[in-house]
């Protein structure tokens, strides 16, 4: 199993993983399949703090993790939101952890200070993964999503990285 930055050929496989979650679970608040176009612009981004990594099993992309802007205003620049999605058959064997360990290392090197994850409830696997990676839950927003015929609560998780860079790498 190889963890690597996404390449130009990967958005279709990434979309297959993500769109299954979008249409069958509350793990993302997208409701419809987004297709490869959601992911293609993230491939090869040179913006510090923005990464898209894939888990490559003998040439097949079976999962991915990415980091993106938390909120657009510039004082949030050294905070990133992170997320991770695996194909059904790829879970429970450390791949989520491997993707996040690689992603968090890159974010630390970039000078990112704080990472945020938004975890719709219930999601014991995601909560366990984030806890194992050093995130802590800092609050719950009640009934902010409506999906699959029910209101959905979201847990807010955060982790401060060790970065004390005073200068953002640009
Ligand atoms: C959440 C997800 C990425 C976890 O990835 P994974 O590869 O299955 O997790 P790992 O095998 O790396 O395990 C990481 C930790 O979580 C724990 N864990 C994994 N699945 C679990 C489950 N179903 N219940 C409880 N704990 C679980 C592991 O024991 C491990 O903890 P440890 O290090 O303390 O032993 C994966 O389940 C997934 O893709 N789910 C669907 C999409 C999703 O919900 N994404 C998150 C959106 S916020």
From TrEMBL:
Domain N-acetyltransferase intervals: 1-162
EC number: 2.3.-.-
Cross-referenced Gene3D superfamilies: 3.40.630.30
SUPFAM superfamilies: Acyl-CoA N-acyltransferases (Nat)
CDD domains, sorted: NAT_SF
Pfam families membership: Acetyltransf_1 (PF00583)
Superkingdom, natural source: Bacteria
Keyword check for Acyltransferase: yes
Alphabetically ordered keywords of this record: Acyltransferase, Transferase
InterPro entries: Acyl_CoA_acyltransferase, GNAT_dom
GO molecular function ontology, one term from the record: acyltransferase activity
Name of the protein: GNAT family N-acetyltransferase
